[in-house]
Amino acid sequence: MDPHLLRKLNEARRERQAVIMLTDLSEGRNRLVKKGDPVSGELGEAVTKAFRSGKSGAMEAEGQRFFINVHLPAPRMVIIGAVHISQALAPMATMAGFDVRVVDPRTAFATPERFENVELIADWPEDALKDRPIDAFTALVAVTHDPKIDDWPLITALKAEAFYVGALGSRKTHARRVERLTQAGLSEADIGRIDAPIGADIGAQSPQEIAVAILAQVIAALRKSAQPTSSQPPKE
Fold first, then answer.
1. Is the pLDDT of residue 229 over 80?
2. CA distance 12 to 19
3. What is the pTM of this model?
4. CA atoms of 117 and 91, how far apart (whole Å)
5. CB 18 within 8 A of CB 50
6. Which InterPro entries match (predicted)?
7. What percentage of residues in the chain have a pLDDT greater than 70?
């Protein structure tokens, strides 16, 4: 491989960018494609599909054979709030392949006994997330019901274009949240990306069922599209 391309690939991986090393098998030429780069025709469709699925492999487009080598950052899930839902969600998300962190400054909730084998940080999100900031391959799940804890990571996740942003709360709770985030300078389109009430509409009642609904929605958001997430209105 061209050393220059290898350096660019390694740099992209360090910066948690989604990239594809595209190889023309007939000529042996390589090309690095970042997520969002324009690629036309059948090849563009194959690249989009590969970003969505995360699967590498050979394919044919417009009479030529290519090998698509996909490099996607490991998806993360940041759960704000060490509550009952989080106790169920964290291990399920870990089994689904997410790098999970639970953050809650309330030490009465954030105890190792309640979160065995889970990365738990008993600190404010502003401090807890300094070493690994929220990025486009992060799902942000806010479930504390406390704006003093939830609002900062929600704002940060929206600005970072996290692939999923969800918040627990009733319609009235979310309406008040919308007012606060609007006052904080976020646009209607940005705020519209928050999934609230959180989770897929499966009629979930128990914390365990709500955790299933959240995880289903997070996975759907991760796999939905290879392109940047479009703005959508909040649930009614």
1. no
2. 7
3. 0.79
4. 8
5. no
6. MoCofactor_Util/Proc, XdhC_Rossmann_dom
7. 94
Strand partners, 23: 30, 67
Return the higher-pLDDT residue of 54 and 22: 22
pLDDT of 202 > 50? The answer is yes
Is residue 31 within a helix (H) or strand (E), and if so which, with residue range?
A: strand 29-34
CA–CA separation, 150 and 76 (whole Å): 18
Sequence-distant (≥ 6) Cβ neighbours of residue 191 within 8 angstroms? 158, 178, 181, 182, 234
Q: Which residue in 181, 189, 199 sits closest to 230, CA to CA?
A: 189
Q: Residue for token digits 């990365």?
A: 119
Q: Which of 92, 109, 111, 161 is nearest to 133 (CA)?
A: 161
What are the DSSP calls for 41-90, one per residue? HHHHHHHHHHHHH---EEEEETTEEEEEEEE-PPPEEEEE--SHHHHHHH
Q: What is the DSSP letter of 195?
A: B
Side chain identity at residue 122, one-letter code: A
Please give the pLDDT value at position 6.
86
Q: Are 44 and 6 in contact (CB under 8 A)?
A: no
Whether the CB-CB separation of 200 and 164 falls below 8 Å is answered with no
Count the residues in the chain: 236
DSSP 3-state percent helix, strand, coil across the chain (nearest 5): 40, 20, 40
Cβ(5)–Cβ(21) below 8 Å = yes
- For the chain, what percent of residues have pLDDT higher than 90? 66
